[in-house]
Amino acid sequence: MIIPMTSSSHQESLAALRWLIEAGADETITEAPVNRFAARKSPATALPDPPSRMRSGGSSLPLEAGGNTNAAAEAVSLSTVPGAARALAASCRTLADLKAALQNFDGIELKRSAKNMVFADGNPAGRIMLIGEAPGRDEDEQGLPFVGRAGKLLDRMLEAIGLDRTKVYITNVLNWRPPQNREPSPEEAAACLPFLHRHIELADPKIMILLGAVSVRHVLGLTEGITRLRGRWEIYQSAGLNRAIPVMPTLHPAYLLRQPAAKRLAWRDLCAVAEKIEELGLA
Question: 279, 207, 198: which is closest to 236 by C-alpha?
C-alpha cells in the first residue's frame, strides 16, 4: 500500500535532508544495487550527473531536462553543491589557491547579493586563528572581516592581551554577507564549510578562538548556548591535520556591544587564551 506524503511529512523529510547535508553527507545508498548502465538507456529514469562533474571554477553542472519533481531537484541541488565544494577545497594547496577557488565557485547563492567576498585578514603565520560568523555591512563594503563597530571592539580586546592583526589571522564561517545580516541557512553553511575546513588546514593554527554561537556550531558541531560553552577549552581535529588544535569559544564582539556587562566573561576567556599562548611559546 502506498501512503501519500502529507505536507508536514514532506517538510520533515526536507528538514532531515538539510541536516544530513550540513553534517557532511553527499550521497545516498539503498538496500538493493542500482544498475546505472541500464538506467542510462532510459531518459525517463536517467540518474542526475554525479557531483564530480564540474564546470571550470568548480560548480556542479545543471540537471538535464527530465521528469524530476521539484522535491527531487531540490534534493539533488542540496547534495551536489557540498560535494563539489569539498572536491574543489581539497584541491587547494595554498591560501591563495583557496581564495581563488572561492571567488570562482558558483554554488554559493550568497554571492549574488553580496558586494564583496570577505576572505581573511591578519597574519596566518601568527598561528592564532579567530573565526566569526559572517560579514556585516561594513565588511561587505570593504572586503575584510571585523572592520565595523564589532571589529573595533575586537581589536581592543586583542590589544588587551598583547595581540593585534599582525599576530593573528581572522576569518568567518561565511565569506559573503547574508541579506539583512540574518543567520546563515543550513544550505549556505553546507556550501561554505568545506572551504572553511580547508582554510583551517592551510593556516594550520596553534590556537583557535571561535567568536559566537554560529561559529561554534559549524566548526565544532556543538549546539549548546554560547554562554554555556564559552571559557571552556575544546579540541578541533581534521583529517588534513596531524594534530589537535585547542579551541576557545567566546562571546561575539557584536553581542558584547549589546550586552556590555558580559565583557567581564569575555575578559576571562581572553586571559585563558593569553595563558595558552605563553604555554605554547607563541608570545
Answer: 207
Check which CATH number belongs to the domain holding 185 and give it. Answer: 3.40.470.10
CA-nearest of 74, 129, 154 to 247 is 129
Of the pLDDT bands very low, low, confident and very high (cuts 50, 70, 90), residue 27 is low
- pLDDT of 221 higher than 50: yes
Q: Give me the mean pLDDT over the 117-133 stretch.
A: 97
Lookup result for grid cell 539503498: 30
- What pLDDT does residue 33 have? 53
Residue 225's domain comprises 116-279
At 172 the three-state DSSP class reads strand
73 lies in a domain?
Answer: no
Helix (H, G, I), strand (E, B), or coil: what is residue 248? strand
The residues with which 235 forms a beta bridge, in sequence order, are 246
Is residue 103 within 8 A of residue 186, CB to CB? The reply is no
132 within 8 A of 172, measured Cβ to Cβ: yes
The answer to whether residues 143 and 118 touch, using CB atoms and an 8 Å cutoff, is: yes
Q: Do 218 and 114 form a contact (C-beta atoms < 8 A)?
A: no
